[in-house]
TrEMBL record:
This is proline dehydrogenase. The lineage of its organism: Bacteria, Bacillati, Actinomycetota, Actinomycetes, Kitasatosporales. Residues 44-299 form the Proline dehydrogenase domain. Coiled coil: none annotated. It catalyses: L-proline + a quinone = (S)-1-pyrroline-5-carboxylate + a quinol + H(+). Gene3D superfamilies: 3.20.20.220. Its cofactor is FAD. Transmembrane segments: none annotated. The keyword Nucleotide-binding applies. Keywords: FAD, Flavoprotein, Nucleotide-binding, Oxidoreductase, Proline metabolism. GO terms for biological process: L-proline catabolic process to L-glutamate. One of its GO terms (molecular function) is proline dehydrogenase activity. Pfam families: Pro_dh. FAD binds at M135, Q163, K187, G188, A189, K201, S226, H227.
Amino acid sequence: MLGPVLLAASRSAAIRRIVSAAPVTRPMVDRFVAGERLAESLGAVRSLTARGLDVTLDHLGEDVTDRSEALRSRDAYLALTEALATEGLAGRAEMSVKLSAFGQALPGGHDLALANVTPVVEAAAAAGTTVTLDMEDHITVDSTLAILGELRTRFPQTGAVLQSYLFRTEDDCRALAGEGSRVRLVKGAYNEPASVAHQDKREVDRAYVRCLKILMGGEGYPMIGSHDPRMVAIAQDLAHRLGRKLDEYEFQMLYGIRVAEQERLVAEGHRMRVYVPYGTDWYGYFMRRLAERPANLTFFLRSLVGRR
């Protein structure tokens, strides 16, 4: 299986240089990333919302190595918030943030990330939009959920992501299934050890369904982050059986993936939110997308070999 290899490669500086230099890379990146500049991402938002889709925007960047980079991430999101408000897009577009981009992995990183993300959440609330905290690898979960708790004391609309492949996630779902909570449930896209995460796809899927039942049966707002047709169908069935209205949950999918399915869900009256990444630091995100989809990986590797 090349998936785990690619997940490890997503944090390799040497492989990053090779992939970034390959001529075939740019067209593949363009499929998954809305652009490198803020203006390009806003163009993608306008196009998507015109088709009835909602958006969550991710300014790419993670695992920052110094405090100045963390401040640049904060400032990029503040500029994004201002642009959404100015363009009248805040009602249809929220933001997703990785706390490692705000300094979480640096010395004193928990407090640093909280200090850097707080003004972004404040600005988002003032603009009429929201922020969701993306989840990264398992060593960050406790810190991320603690920061979520701090933020929700003032901004209860702040959302979080939970990953079904982690053994702990069912308990985390129970803790976050209360009124006002917003949770995006995904399967998980990091290379986690067997001591903390399911390794078999079928077990990950079963865990996803168990977590989905908890969230859909709770009082919060579930966000179903999956491209899996079976998971989408199960979520629809649960919503129907539990009497959830169409505005009491939403589906989320990645930019450039299963576009026809996104539009089908909108046509059926569902809220469908597209995760739109942008920025120059696209490498880690791109490699995780290749690891998730064997067809994309096969195409990319064949093209890479053919060009070299």
